[in-house]
Description:
By secondary structure, the chain is an alpha/beta fold. The longest helix is centred in the first third of the chain and has 10 residues, at about 20-30. Helix 4 links the parallel strand 4 (about 90) and strand 5 (about 115). A six-stranded parallel beta sheet has the order 1-2-3-4-5-6, with helices on one face. Helix 1 runs parallel beside helix 2. It starts with 9 loop residues before the first strand and ends in an 18-residue tail after the last helix. The protein has helices at about 20-30, 50-55, 75-85, 100-110, 125-135, 155-160, and strands spanning about 10-15, 35-40, 65, 90, 115, 140. It is globular.
Amino acid sequence: KQWYQRRVAITAGLSECNQITDVGIQKMCSRLLLLETLDISYCVNVTDYATKFLAFSCRELVRLNIAGCTQLTDTSVSYISGGCHYLSHLNMSNITNMTDKALRFLRRGCKLLQRLNVTICPNITYGAIQRVETGGCVVSHSIDVKEMKLGPILPLSQTHKRPMSVGYSIFPIPNHA
Length: 177
């Protein structure tokens, strides 16, 4: 007899769970190798160590929300880009430790990335965001207007254009009911 493993999309949502730690992420990932969507946003006890284990255990990951995980750094993104090559959506908003280096890692390792949220990441520059967007990724951000080199600012009535807006998305986990 031949045995076939049925492919099931595995989703885990642990948003704002202050009890989750690196050890909890490690245990979860060791059991959910086919995990495709993970939301650990605002789990403030998660560190770079957890993302290392996540990235190299859950290589099928497509959507990841690490927004507000304040202990994460560019090192986490280097792990993610090194192990999660199917990643299409990443929310790393509100992580002040992230820099342009994180976006360089993503450009190199996550070639399928379609949506990236770096809102409230003050150490990521507009230039780095533009380089990611050049690859076809839609980036949500909140960049200081002074950095954008806009040129003369005319009253709205003279420009006949709508004001610039920046989209915000937290990449919600789909409901598979």
